[in-house]
Amino acid sequence: MTAQRACGVNDVAVSSAVKVELDGIAVAIVKDSAGAIHAIGDTCTHGEISLSEGFVEGDAIECWAHGSQFALATGKPMNLPAYEPVPVFEVTIDGDDVLVDVQNPLTQQ
């Protein structure tokens, strides 16, 4: 695994997201409503909007511009207008650090 530090665990509040850039890839680090941390591609596949500026509900993130929701575990859109998934990246928690491997996505667009 080629994971690198994305942020601190406490840098992301429950039901919110922050945008980071790792190896030139925009990634949304998301803490779902249960407190689990996910890493997904930050760009909505419908309108090229930053997903980290959207809304986190349960285990999904919603694009603020057009309302498409993406499952945090799979990156798949849950409703239109988006129909292409966003990539999902492996997350490892090391102490207070969130490590993300952007070189080997778990799922891809």
Descriptive report:
InterPro entries: Rieske_2Fe-2S, Rieske_2Fe-2S_sf. GO terms for molecular function: 2 iron, 2 sulfur cluster binding; dioxygenase activity; metal ion binding; monooxygenase activity; oxidoreductase activity, acting on paired donors, with incorporation or reduction of molecular oxygen. Keywords: 2Fe-2S, Dioxygenase, Iron, Iron-sulfur, Metal-binding, Oxidoreductase. With 109 residues, this protein is mainly β. The protein has a single domain, classed as Rieske Iron-sulfur Protein (3-layer Sandwich). 0% of the residues lie in helices and 41% in strands. The strands form two sheets. Strands 1-9-8-4-3-2 form a six-stranded antiparallel sheet, with no helix packed on it.
Instruction: State the CATH class.
Output: Mainly Beta
Major sheet characteristics: 6 strands, antiparallel
Q: How many helix segments?
A: 0
What fraction of residues sit in β-strands?
35-45%
Query: Runs with pLDDT <50, length 5+?
Result: none
Topology, number of strands: 9
Category by helix and strand content: mainly beta
